[in-house]
Specification:
- The protein has 331 residues and is an alpha+beta fold.
- Helices cover 34% and strands 20% of the residues.
- The chain has 9 helices and 10 strands.
- Strands 1, 5, 6, 7, 8, 9 and 10 form a 7-stranded antiparallel β-sheet that branches. It has a 3-stranded antiparallel β-sheet with strand order 2-3-4, with no helix packed on it.
- α1 crosses α2 and α8 runs parallel beside α9.
- It is globular, with a radius of gyration of 22 Å.
Length: 331
């Protein structure tokens, strides 16, 4: 069995934002720069003429800045209200505050909570469970509740699926409508499913460890799921085929594949008996998205990509890889 020195790597949602500070939801929001109230107001041109009756602006009351344009049926849910929901959950003793942050001048905010318990898989690898609540004032989404798993040894994060709560891509979403409060009550029930989901997730992970994959199978898995473009004319049978580039990759694609194959050999992807397994391949993809993909060449975090690793394109990449891997276990 290969041994490793414990080293916690920064996860995508932990690479921006700050540690939550405060005893109440109001304190947490104030310390995070989210204490403002968002108000709906008409939109006017510079001559004072109302632009449209179909859309309104969302304005911060402290700076009068417009942070979003939304439809006429849109209802504002203040960030502090979502923080209070998070605070209510921490009062159960099942969750504790972790991090809080915002993007686009407060147009979007997120509150991350940690479950105190963890499960152990792969013999001795701890997996922590988190819950992230996200809210927006720009019409980009409703209130999102995202149950997540976090590999303590490497910082990889996957969203758990909430199938019974009508979730999509590991998210439970409440739209900004007049029936929002009713939906939030349903959402609380979905949150109560976290322990059951965690146990199921652990069983799935254990199943992936039992599926061996040779290097050719793993490379194809990466090509199928990562943003790597294969050019038919450069593949075998194409007019520009090169035997030294059998997958038909342009320079950017080859660079990504080289990075990914390098990640296989790193200690966080060599824990226990995971080497050469489906579990390793799945985590290499998450490793790439949660760390390399969200980091710029100068070592800074691209906040849009970090957010995407939780709820956008990056999460969909990881989600599809997980679903593919799970299908191989079932098969």
């Amino acid at each position: 069995m290969k041994q490793m020195t414990r080293q916690i790597r920064q996860e995508a949602w932990g690479s921006f934002g700050d540690e939550a500070q405060g005893e109440t939801a109001e304190d947490v929001c104030k310390n995070a720069g989210l204490a403002f109230t968002a108000n709906l107001e008409p939109l006017y041109d510079k001559r004072g003429t109302m632009l449209t009756h179909k859309h309104r602006g969302v304005f911060r009351d402290d700076t009068n800045e417009c942070i979003g344009v939304v439809g006429k049926s849109y209802h504002v849910k203040q960030h502090v209200d979502v923080a209070n929901l998070a605070h209510e959950l921490t009062g159960t003793g099942l969750l504790e505050w972790n991090r809080v942050g915002h993007t686009n001048n407060g147009a979007r905010a997120w509150f991350n909570l940690a479950l105190p318990d963890e499960v152990v898989i792969n013999g001795n690898e701890p997996i922590q469970t988190y819950m992230t609540l996200m809210n927006s004032h720009d019409g980009s989404s409703g209130i999102r509740v995202i149950p997540q798993t976090f590999r303590m040894e490497c910082g990889n994060q996957y969203n758990m699926m909430i199938r019974d709560a009508k979730a999509k891509n590991g998210l439970f979403v409440v739209r900004h409508t007049s029936r929002m409060d009713e939906a939030i009550e349903q959402m609380k029930q979905a949150i109560g499913m976290t322990n059951v989901m965690m146990d199921e997730w652990a069983k799935q992970a254990q199943g992936m460890m039992k599926v061996d994959m040779d290097i050719g199978e793993r490379v194809q898995f990466y090509l199928d799921h990562l943003p790597i473009i294969q050019k038919p004319d450069m593949m075998k049978g194409g007019e520009n085929y090169d035997k030294n580039n059998p997958f038909g990759l342009a320079k950017r694609g080859q660079n990504i594949l080289d990075v990914v194959l390098g990640l296989e050999a790193q200690e966080q992807n060599q824990i226990g008996d995971m080497d050469g397994t489906l579990w390793q391949a799945v985590n290499v993809i998450s490793d790439f998205i949660d760390h390399d993909w969200v980091t710029t060449k100068d070592g800074k975090v691209n906040e849009k990509r970090a957010e995407s690793a939780i709820v956008g394109t990056g999460q969909r990449i990881k989600g599809k890889a997980w679903e593919d891997a799970l299908a191989r276990v079932v098969a």
